[in-house]
Sequence to fold (407 residues):
Amino acid sequence: MSCVLPYGAQSHVGLDLPDETLLAVFNEPRGGVLDDPAAAVAAALDEPLNFPALARATVPGDRIVLALEHGVPQATALVAAVANYLVEHGASADQLAVLIPPAAVAAGERDPRSLLPDAWRDEVALEVHAPDAAGSLSLLASNHEGKPVYMNRTLLDADLVVPIGCLRHEPTIGYYGQYGGLFPTFSDARTQSRFHKPAAGARRQQAAKQREEIDEVGWLLGTQFTVQALPGGGGGLLQVLAGEIPAVFRAGRLAYESAWRCGVPGRASLVVASLAGGREQQTWQNLARALAAASCLVADGGAIAVCTELAVEPGPAVTGLSRLADRELLVKSIRREHAVDALEAIELARATEQARVYLLSRLDESLVEDLGMAHISEPGDVGRLARRHESCIVLSNAQYVVPAAQE
Fold:
């Protein structure tokens, strides 16, 4: 059986394997990719879920902030569509601001205003959140434990905040649910450090406690409206949902599960996964998400091959993987340092302990091998690797896949 696995912006890997070897191929999510995301956004804003049309939520002179998460597919198209809608319904371009996290800049993402009309693009402010700059933060309130909650000043001063985010599977690394696009994304450095810290005990208990804190801050913020993208393959979109935050995320969870759930008959000795999409998808966080999905489907002692166009240097915690061979000491070191990429480093350490990990990327071979992975130099090597295994599962866009293996 032959299959083609897309990765990166326009690259692909060809696999030609016996039918009995290829247990499952997940190449595309269920549902068609939107041909016109801008039209889909306009329709969603006119008829949002459990909320009046967005045009009725603002008046001329309102200060409006579009709070954009890092890694949202088609981010520039979404920002342009929301901004155009607001301006067409009476908002002033010079009262609009786009707020982005510093991770978006570090990943080299495009200016989110790049698709705005030339006539007023420069009137829309762009702010990169500075979590360690006291002047950019304001006190929101004290939480139920009496601890102060600091948030981005521009966000708190706004008359209307419209979070723009990407729906994901709930346990996904770095995903904090319905208010996560605001908190801890635009909170202070100390708070963000707490959320980057890997769990010392049960992961589910830590996640539940974090979700309670996030939901409380969401209630304190009073933000009611959101725009969320349901991702498609290769950086496209399947759907755009807008409206009341709880309603959007209830519908979004069902839509995401329907589109991205991948059921397979059993684990395989090799899982070949990919990060499909442009530069905004080629990140260490998405690599960690892909490894997490593949790890659920690979047999003990098996192998995982991830095909990417990853080119950015790793953060401090991932870089630290090359310094310590002892996993227990490594995990303790990562928890102690509170690095922004700590969760990614832990996932990479787990994956390389469970399976032999191969990486096709644009990174130096020495860097890949120092991190405990085997370097793949060309796409053809993936096919040769697959032919050496008795069973194989193929996952495209693995950063989004919801794996489900029958034991």
About this structure: The two ends are 24 Å apart (CA to CA). The first helix runs from residue 37 to 46. The first strand starts at residue 2 and ends at 7.
